[in-house]
Amino acid sequence: QVQLVESGRGVVQPGRSLRLSCAASGFSFSTHAMHWVRQAPGKGLEWVAVISKDGSNGNNKYYADSVKGRFTISRDNSKNTLYLQMDNLKPDDTAVYYCARDSLHYGIFDYWGQGTLVTVSS
Amino acid sequence: EIVLTQSPATLSLSPGERATLSCRASESVTNYLAWYQQRPGQAPRLLIYDASNRATGIPDRFSGSGSGTDFTLTISSLEPEDFAVYYCQQRYNYFTFGPGTKVDIK
C-alpha cells in the first residue's frame, strides 16, 4: 500500500533553516510528481511546491509565491525520498507540512502523508 | 491566481440528511476541480477529481458536478464518519484550495 512518511519536525527561530523529508513506499516513486502542501494551525490548505517525476531539470520545480526564493524542493529517486529545504523561515511558515503524491492526472493529490509540524518562533 | 470560494462555511446537518457543498472559481477551471475530505487530526483524503470522478475506494454517496466556475459536492445521506471539513482544489493554473466547508452534526 502507498505510504508517505514525513520527518524533520521542529521548532526553529525566525531566519533559520530546516529540512523536511518524506519517505515513500508501496509504489514506483520515480513515476510520480510530488508535492508539499501546508496547513497553518486552525487554517486551510496551501500548496507549497511541486517537483516532476525526475526532478533533474530546474524547470520542473514550481513554488507558491509565498515561499519562492526561500524553499527548495528536491528528490532522490534512488532513496524514494522527497525533500523540502526551508531557509530564512518566518513565523507565517508555522504549519503542518504534508507531502502528497501526484496522481497520473497532474495536479491531483491522491495520497498524503500524516504531516509534520514546523513551528517558527523566537 | 485563481481564487476558490466555498459556501457555506459551516453546514449543520443530521446523519441521514443530504449535504450540498458549493465551490466557485474566480475564473474558469474547465473541469479541473477536485474535492478532499479532512477529518480532525488527519491528513486530507481525495474524494472527487476532475469535477465528477470518484477516487478509488470512495463510496457512491459522494458525487461531484459542475464545470467552468461553479461546482457542487453532494453527499446523498450523511454517515457519522462524513462529519468533517471539505476542500475544493483547482489544477487548471497551478494549484489552489478553497477555504473549506465544515459539515458538523446538528
Task: Provide keyphrases for this structure.
heterodimer, A: mainly beta, 11 strands, B: 106 residues, mainly beta, seven-stranded mixed β-sheet, four-stranded antiparallel β-sheet, globular
Structural class of chain A: mainly beta
H/E order of the elements of chain A? EEEEEEEEEEE
What percentage of amino acids of chain A are in beta strands? over 45%
Gyration radius of chain A (Cα, Å) is 13 Å
Count of runs of 4 or more consecutive helical residues of chain B: 0
SSE ordering of chain B: EEEEEEEEEEE
Q: Low-confidence stretches of chain B at least 5 residues in length (pLDDT < 50)?
A: none
Count of extended strands of chain B: 11
Helix content of chain A: under 10%
Helicity level of chain B? under 10%
Strand content of chain B: over 45%
Please report the two chains with the greatest interface, counting residues with C-beta closer than 8 angstroms to the partner's C-beta.
A-B, 22 and 23 residues
Summarize the main sheet of chain B. Answer: 7 strands, mixed
Average pLDDT reading of chain A: 94
In quaternary terms, these chains amount to heterodimer
Fold and architecture overview:
- The complex is a heterodimer of chains A (122) and B (106).
- Chain A has 122 residues and is mostly beta strands.
- Helix content of chain A is 0%, strand content 50%.
- In chain A, strands 2, 4, 5, 6, 9, 10 and 11 form a 7-stranded mixed β-sheet that branches.
- In chain A, a hairpin with a 4-residue loop joins strand 7 (71-76) and strand 8 (81-86).
- Chain A is globular, with a radius of gyration of 13 Å.
- Chain B has strands at 4-7, 10-13, 19-25, 33-38, 45-49, 53-54, 62-67, 70-75, 85-90, 96-97, 101-105.
- In chain B, strands 2, 4, 5, 6, 9, 10 and 11 form a 7-stranded mixed β-sheet that branches. Chain B has a 4-stranded antiparallel β-sheet with strand order 1-3-8-7, with no helix packed on it.
- In chain B, a hairpin with a 6-residue loop joins strand 4 (33-38) and strand 5.
- The model of chain B has no long low-confidence stretch (mean pLDDT 97).
- The A-B interface holds A 35, 37, 44-47, 50, 62, 64, 98, 103, 105-115 and B 32, 34, 36, 38, 42-46, 49-50, 55-56, 87, 89, 91, 94-100.
